[in-house]
Model the fold of this input.
Amino acid sequence: MNHKRALVTGGSGFIGSHLVHRLLDQGAHVAVMVRYGNVMKNERLRGVWNRVHVIEADLRNRGALQSVKEFNPDVVFHLAAYNHVGESFRQVEECFDVNAKGTANLLDLCEDAKKFIYMSTSEVYGLQESVPFAEEMCPAPISPYAITKYSGELYCRLKQRLQTGPAIVIARPFNTFGPYQSAKAIIPELILNCLRGVPIRTTLGEQTREFNFVDNIVDGLMKVATHPEPIDGPINFAAGEEVAIRDLVRMIAELTETRSEVLIGALPYRPTEIWRMYADSRRAREVLGWKPQVSLREGLQRTVAWFREYVG
Done:
């Protein structure tokens, strides 16, 4: 990425900020698109704020995106999104505006870029009859968030078929965790509660998920950015390591050496519970030569250490 001009939308978000740091480390000229152009609203970028080109714009306003064209990026990493699954049921209009309309706006205005990387989500798979989730499965999203992210995918696929504008790659990362993640996500919530000695209340935890350390996902995005050949259709980024939620809770309790009371089975399951979710990542391995370098346990150890220092 040396000397490349890279735009990261959502660059002050959890994954985006890690990506920005990696791009800067590799010598890229980085622009971040944010809704509020001051460092106090973009705390994750405080240490590199003076090293990035800040574009203050809203994806929903096509006119405001003119500054993106002026930056003239070689590669666009589109990570900005309305990304709260639960709240998307109450904020349907905003969710559609940001994720579907916003993606179309940005893609239409980045026709001179060489590559456009669209950050989708494993949530698009939704209800499937079997695991692991593979790219050829038909998505069955079960939230406005997932529907709108899939809408963005469909627009990207349209542009791929028209063969106009930049080379487009659709990335589907599975659950990601690591330093600087919001406490609204399950792993930081569990870590913080364990460190503070707060009682841990969960369902029976029989449902399974997979969790991916953020550095592994950034590795995948960097592989995509430098890949010389077109990649048609979506590509999963995931370890394929299935873990039951109850086992995740116990592992975090062990790593934090918590004094918290762990009450597994204290909460009911959600009516729309997805019982198993993990990925087939063979395509990323075969096409990109990508594989996760940090295991779940090592990633949790690093994340616990970071939050322990953060909590102080």
User: Anything to note?
Assistant: The two ends are 36 Å apart (CA to CA).
